[in-house]
Amino acid sequence: MSVAEAPASVVSLRQVGRTFDGDPPVEALRSVDLEIRRGEYVSIVGPSGSGKSTLLNVLGLLDRPTHGTYELDGFDVGSLSDAERTAVRGQRIGFVFQAFHLLPHRTVLENVMLSLLYNRTPSADRKERAEQALDRVGLSHRLEFAPTTLSGGERQRVAIARALVMRPAILLGDEPTGNLDSVTTRSILELFDELQAEGLTLILITHDLDVSGRAHRVVTMTDGVLSDPMAAVR
Amino acid sequence: MTAPEVTSARTGERLKPSRFSLKDLLGEATAGVLARPARAILTALGTVLGVAALVSTMGLAKTAGNQIVTRFDELSATDVKVTPNRGTLPFDSENRLTRLNGVRAAGTVTEVDVKGALTSSVPLNDPLGINELPITVQALSPGAFGAVRASLRTGRFFDASQDDLQVAVLGPGAATDLRVNRVDQQPAIFIGDQTFVVIGILKDVERRSELLDAILIPNGVAKALYGTAGASSVQIDTDVGAARLIGRQAPIALAPNNPKRLAVEVPPQNEVVKTQVEGDVNALFLLLGGVSLLIGALGIANVTLVSVLERVGEIGLRRAVGAARRHIAAQFLLESTMLGFFGGLIGTTLAVITIVAVAKAKSWVPVLDPWLPLAAPFAGALIGLVSGVYPSWRPASVEPIAALRSGL
Ligand SMILES: Nc1ncnc2c1ncn2[C@@H]1O[C@H](COP(=O)(O)OP(=O)(O)OP(=O)(O)O)[C@@H](O)[C@H]1O
Ligand SMILES: [Mg+2]
């Protein structure tokens, strides 16, 4: 790691690989190097099966790489135990998934508060913070609704509020607009633009050119190999 | 169990491990149970039935056992027998005792020495003697029939006016031996050379079972024919609970000058009988209840496992927002424990209703150890806890992405 660029990096991958056991084993990531600075808006593109989701799961500490080192916000997360990785995940990383992943039997507000349940936020503050986050995504009028009664765009806004409410160092999205129509997609993308303008670090997987067009930087996965046009510049 | 703090190499900032407070745990587990009420009821159903079966069988065993004990006690608490250590008791003992408060019936019972005379139901000229039998003869005062709680198959007892008449009442055993079945023709029996008219045949006696095989004759006749000088025992039937009191008063009434001459038998309290009966009944019912409870536990384990598998997506999501493995496990464990607790609570309520209903139908007094309905919900909770251990820990041990990928 070079001393000059390290302070600015929020994500730093060095020679990261992920091989899935099997017959034959699948090398989903091969020697990936990636530096992402605070406040960057990065889009990951590439053909299906190229390893995009695998990369994002490694970045989000949902999965462990089989080789290489990973520093997140200065924490050497590769060397951490499961409980320590859980703590970092719960306090530094926000997720938005293509399938929303909302608890169907809980209200919108409760779904957002779930993000604050395990990370030592005093219970007295949780409701207010969740309300603020929902206000931020324009859903103040849906607090007590069941997620099942919301439209797709609204559901994804709830998921984004849930990711924002814990003030993450990075927000990860795996095709967050993949289930949405084009109008709804545009409103979600505008929300991402605003969040990025406020200083959030965004890393989104997408198939959508509209999405990758808004990103500052587009990296491409092909067969487990990451190509980063900016890497040469830096 | 808590993870150490994580320190950032760059900023030196420290991250504390994830936390799941008891209050939050309770809230999430409650919400988890209430999210699917029908599922929760079905999960708890096994425990409801198991606990209901166990508590109601234990309660019914106790109630029934208590009932048997009450019967034993009722009989023994009213039975007093007086015998002289030497000599005899006066034939008028009956009159002296019936005056006492608490005596329901009293009478003398005396075995008569017939000097080897045999009895038959046919006239004397029986050269072969095949119909002549050695049958005991007992002299009774009229009140003795009530005191031994005798019942009649046919005919009647003799009374005070027949004291000097040669009449007899046959015990059922003696009646069979002598082949006397009816008394409407005034059949005669022959004891040695004396003729007696049979006026009644007993069905049963509750005390003094030796009377069942005997010929019963009045005291006056026994004295006149066989020289029986006095009574050899007095049998008393008292009011419930008065046996011990009468047991003290009877010797004074019968032998005021020397009450110590008399021995009094008041049967002891039937403590031993009581615990034995209860033990027998309990062992059987407890076994049945235990089996149903085991089935209940398997039910909880099974449904918890299914619902945990169903909620893998939720588990993945909770892991993604910072839940540690033990937080996931704790929540599922608490959910199954709560289901067990409420299952036990409902089960024990049903059981108490059952016990009271059965007792009412049988006009018994419902009896239940007070700790039983109090302990039952906790037994249910324990069942939920134990049967939740394996299913709770299983999904917590997978990588969060594997759980998330299974969808929500
Ligand atoms: N748990 C796993 N076990 C085995 N192989 C896996 C596993 N997860 C992913 N793979 C394989 O790794 C490769 C990369 O998968 P990944 O999901 O990262 O692709 P992707 O780029 O996200 O594709 P898509 O655009 O279709 O979502 C695929 O060949 C996939 O089959
Ligand atoms: Mg993918």
Dominant shape of chain A = globular
How many helix segments of chain A? 8
Question: In what range is the share of β-strand residues of chain B?
Answer: 15-25%
Q: Could you say which structural class the secondary elements and strand pairing of chain B correspond to? A: alpha+beta
The hetero molecules present are:
adenosine-5'-triphosphate, magnesium ion
Q: Strand order, biggest sheet of chain A?
A: 6-7-8-3-9-10
Termini separation of chain B comes to 29 Å
Q: Can you give the helix content of chain A as a percent range?
A: 25-40%
Helix content of chain B: 40-55%
**Strand segment count of chain B:** 13
> What is the radius of gyration of chain A?
18 Å
Counting DSSP E segments of at least 2 residues, the number of strands of chain A comes to 10
What share of residues are in beta strands of chain A?
A: 25-35%
Outline of chain B, from the CA principal axes? rod-shaped
Q: Taking all residues together, what is the mean pLDDT of chain A?
A: 90
Brief write-up:
Chain A is α/β, with parallel strands linked by helices and 234 residues long. Chain A has helices at 52-59, 82-92, 108-113, 123-136, 152-164, 182-197, 209-214, 229-233; strands at 9-20, 26-37, 41-45, 67-72, 75-76, 93-97, 170-174, 201-205, 217-222, 225-227. Chain A has 8 helices and 10 strands.
Task: Give an overview in words.
The complex is a heterodimer of chains A (234) and B (408). By secondary structure, chain A is an alpha/beta fold. Chain A contains eight helices and ten strands. Chain A has helices spanning 52-59, 82-92, 108-113, 123-136, 152-164, 182-197, 209-214, 229-233, and strands at residues 9-20, 26-37, 41-45, 67-72, 75-76, 93-97, 170-174, 201-205, 217-222, 225-227. Chain A has a six-stranded mixed beta sheet. A four-stranded antiparallel beta sheet of chain A has the order 2-1-4-5, covered by helices on one side. Chain A is globular and about 50 Å long. Chain B has 408 residues and is α+β, with helices and mostly antiparallel strands. Chain B folds into two domains: 6-12 and 19-71 and 272-407, no CATH class; 78-266, no CATH class. Chain B contains twelve helices and 13 strands. Chain B has helices at 22-35, 37-76, 93-98, 143-147, 172-178, 219-226, 243-254, 271-310, 312-320, 325-361, 371-396, 400-405, and strands at 6-7, 14-15, 79-84, 103-112, 119-120, 137-140, 151-155, 167-170, 188-191, 194-204, 215-218, 234-238, 262-265. In chain B, the strands form two sheets. In chain B, strands 3, 4, 5, 6, 7, 8, 9, 10, 11, 12 and 13 form an eleven-stranded mixed beta sheet that branches. A two-stranded antiparallel ribbon of chain B has the order 1-2. In chain B, a hairpin with a 6-residue loop joins strand 1 (6-7) and strand 2. In chain B, helix 1 (22-35) crosses helix 10, helix 2 runs antiparallel to helix 8 and helix 8 (271-310) crosses helix 10. Chain B is rod-shaped, with a radius of gyration of 38 Å. The mean pLDDT of chain B is 84. At the A-B interface, strand 5 and helix 2 of A face strand 1, helix 1, helix 9 and helix 12 of B. The structure holds adenosine-5'-triphosphate and magnesium ion.
